[in-house]
Amino acid sequence: MDEQEFFNKIKELQKQRDLLKKDVTVLECKINELRDILELKNIKKGYYTNNLGLFCKVYDIKGDNIHVYELDTTDLLSLTKETYYWRSFEETYYKKCTKEEYDKALDKIVKHFKS
């Protein structure tokens, strides 16, 4: 093989490498999309908490949005209706809780505003 043939072979291999890099990128994106879908499917209607005084009841899931009634039993004591993007929901509410725990938090807020 002469020098020009070596250069041509190197160029060809570089093109193949670049195509493979693009394929890898596409595959990584598809993998991430599938992981996101799996994560979203793990969120169901029910009760969740952050173990720090924040509770919620998921009442609807539409697309990537999680609609909740949120109870804040910290110093703020509030009841609000919120919409979370699924990823921020998972970062906020990382633990399921029972209806009884949620009701207890709601009672605390109601009692505060009645007094």
Summed over residues and divided by their number, the pLDDT gives a mean of 89
Kindly state the percentage of residues in helix.
40-55%
The sequence of SSEs as H and E is HEEEEHEH
Task: List the total number of helices.
Answer: 3
| Secondary-structure class | alpha+beta
Largest sheet: 5 strands, antiparallel
Determine the N-to-C terminus distance: 93 Å
Neighbour order of strands in the largest sheet: 4-3-2-1-5
Radius of gyration over alpha carbons? Answer: 25 Å
Sum up the overall morphology in one term. rod-shaped
**Quick one: how many beta strands?**
5
Give the strand content: 25-35%
The unreliable regions are none
Care to describe what's here?
The protein has 115 residues and is α+β, with helices and mostly antiparallel strands. Strands 4-3-2-1-5 form a 5-stranded antiparallel beta sheet. Strand 1 and strand 2 form a beta hairpin. The chain is rod-shaped and about 95 Å long. The chain starts with a helix and ends with a helix. The model has no long low-confidence stretch (mean pLDDT 89).
List keywords for this structure.
five-stranded antiparallel β-sheet, 115 residues, rod-shaped, alpha+beta, 3 helices
Task: Give a topology summary.
Elements: H1 3-41, E1 46-49, E2 54-62, E3 65-72, E4 78-85, H2 86-92, E5 95-96, H3 99-114
Antiparallel strand pairs: 1-2, 1-5, 2-3, 3-4
Gist of the model:
The protein is built from three helices and five strands; from the N terminus they run H-E-E-E-E-H-E-H. It has helices spanning 3-41, 86-92, 99-114; strands at residues 46-49, 54-62, 65-72, 78-85, 95-96.
